[in-house]
Amino acid sequence: MGWKKVEGTDTVYVIKPDANNSTEYVKDYLEDLETEIEESEDESEEAEEVTFTLERDLQEALRRNIRSLEQGLEITDGGQERHTIAGFVDITSCDAQGRIVVIELKAPIAKPEVIAQTLAYMEAVQTEDKKEVRGIIVASDFADRVKLAARQIPNLKLVKYSIQFNFNLID
To answer: What is the pTM of this model?
Structure first.
């Protein structure tokens, strides 16, 4: 059919040539597209770094004041994320009734995948420790599907956090 392959930086395009059998007419468009892709990748990497830093800061703050999440909680992981066959649990604690509490942190909005992730952690910990386990997901907000799904899981709780900045003038 006369289509030509044009290679970009990380992408291959298939372009239909014009009446002169040339693909030059899309050259500027493809250069702009490549620039947009590169900028988008850079922004995505920056967003991941910010999210990672915020989640780490959230974890540190919560570890310092775990009882603000729930009275009676005691951290049991020695200050380190617990490694399980399902992955790394952000915070492992024990509640006032002696149940293990798996705490999963999401700095931005918690998406539906967090339900499967947390349930997998809970099952892995329960299998390893042979004790009753429940879960808490902490996030700045929750997708509607997360809220709906969590209502069907009696041993899973969603907790929304917020950040407040106070500014005080220094003389």
So the answer is: 0.68
